[in-house]
Structures are given as C-alpha cells and as structure tokens.
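name: query_chain
kind: protein
chains: 1
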Amino acid sequence: MNILTRFSFYIILTCFFSCNNSKGINFIYQMKEVDEITSPKYGLDSLYKYLELNISNPNVSDSDTLYYFVEFVVLYNGEIIVNRQYPNISNSFDSLVLNTICRTEPWIPSKLNGQDVNTSITLPFAFPPKKMSKMN
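structure:
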C-alpha cells in the first residue's frame, strides 16, 4: 500500500467514525432534528412563571395581550446566545426580557445520538395587559 492510499484510507475511517453522527461542534440543529429537546434547568413552566413575575406588559393603555418572541441558540454547554427578539417594543423592555432569559442559564442542551448539541429555539411569550387598580 503506498502512502497516498494509506492516507486516503485514514481520512475515510476518521470521517466515518468521527463525523458519522455529528455535523461538528459549531453546527446549529433545529428542534425537529434532535432526539431530546433543550429545556431550562427547571423546566419551561418554571421559566414562564419566572418571566411572569419579573416582566409586565409595557402597554399601559392597551387592553390586549402582548405576544413576544425570542429566537436564541442553546449551546452544547447550556449557554444561551440570543439571535433576535420581536416585535421590538422599546429598548428597555427588550433589554429586560433579554436579561431575564439570560439569567436562566445554564439550560439543559439538546441531545442527538447521546451527545449534547447546539440547538436553535424560538419561544413565544404572552404578557397579559396590566391590571389597573380601581380608584374610589
């Protein structure tokens, strides 16, 4: 076997065993591509309750519920990288939501073939209208 054949054989084996189940550490999977879906350490219900206690609807005169979305990536190590938030309400409200979500780190990462992987996720949030106190 000449050196080129050995090298080619080595590359094929390396790629088969190391790349067979993974697209690499920098690849970001979608939720539908993973075996186990990422979640906050204490669960989604706890996350929504935490946000409900820490954030209120900024629309004082609006009687409608505010629907808000946050797109982010949960890395294989549980860290969060926020991609975008929409709709943009105000700098202070957007920052408050961002900071509150980041305080929920670390998350439990998604798993694919038993390995932790990066995953893109979009979470919807509903902020009910502020309750106005009655003036007597």
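note: The chain has a mean pLDDT of 79.
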